[in-house]
Amino acid sequence: MERRLAVIDLGSNSFRLVVFTHADEWWKRTDEIYEPVRVGERQETGGPLQPEPMERALETIELFAHFCRAAGIERVRPLATSAIREASNRKAFVRAARKRSGLAVEVLSREQEARYGYLAAVNSTTLADGVALDIGGGSMQLTRVAGRRAGDARSWRLGAVVTTERFLATERVKPKQLKALREHVRAELASAAWLREGPGLLAGIGGTVRNLAAAVMLEAGLPSYGVQGFCLERAALDALVERLAELTPAERRRVPGVKPERGDLILAGAVVVQTVMDAGGFETLEVTEAGLREGAFFEELLAGTEPPLLDDVRAASVRNLAAQYHPDAAHSAHVARLALEIWDGLAGAGVHPGDAEERELLWASAVLHDVGTAVDYDDHHKHSRYLILNAGLPGFSPRETALIGQAARYHRKGQPGLGEFAPLARRGDDGLLARCAAVLRVAEQLERPRDQAIRHAEVVVVADGRVELRLKSRGDASVSRWGAERQADLFRRAFGRELVVG
Question: All domains of the chain, ordered by start, with CATH?
Answer without folding.
Answer: 3-108 (3.30.420.40), 111-291 (3.30.420.150), 314-501 (1.10.3210.10)
